[in-house]
Task: inverse folding
């Protein structure tokens, strides 16, 4: 009795050399299959653990933010420059925009115009000001679905001088 499977087997075996019909080491196929499944499982398990970690971090951050206990984990560093001359502006003030949500963090630039501000990781605005210059507001941070609890951002802020 000839079955459909038997017909296809005959056609398949007819396309290759008789020495390749049977695998001399069937254990070899089992090991390879097991190794592939183990690798796929490890990748999926790692992905699920990463998602759990990320979701837990987001919930922890949101709970701390709602309770008013948020810790600054986003570092903004950069330089404040004069837009016309390109020279650094000493002692410029860099702070979270007062129009945003508290808590607010602030820092001052040094003599060379360089600053480093620790703030919250969420997307918000930073205000930069200096005597004799128009203040400038810059958007920083990341959207909630792509942020990680910690990070850094580099800025180059150029301020326009007030016309005398």
Result:
């Amino acid at each position: 009795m000839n079955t459909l499977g038997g017909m296809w087997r005959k056609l398949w075996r007819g396309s290759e050399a008789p020495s390749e019909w049977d695998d001399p080491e069937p254990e070899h196929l089992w090991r390879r299959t097991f190794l592939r499944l183990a690798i796929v499982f490890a990748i999926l398990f790692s992905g699920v653990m990463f998602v759990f970690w990320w979701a837990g971090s987001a919930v922890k951050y949101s709970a701390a933010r709602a309770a008013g206990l948020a810790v600054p984990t986003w570092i903004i560093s950069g330089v404040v420059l004069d837009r016309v001359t390109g020279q650094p502006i000493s002692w410029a003030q860099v702070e979270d925009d007062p129009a945003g949500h508290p808590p607010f963090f602030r820092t001052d630039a040094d003599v060379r115009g360089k600053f480093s501000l620790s703030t919250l990781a969420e997307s918000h605005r930073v205000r930069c000001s200096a005597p004799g210059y128009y203040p400038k507001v810059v958007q920083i941070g990341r959207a909630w679905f792509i942020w990680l609890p910690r990070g850094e951002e580099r800025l180059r802020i150029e301020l326009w001088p007030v016309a005398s």
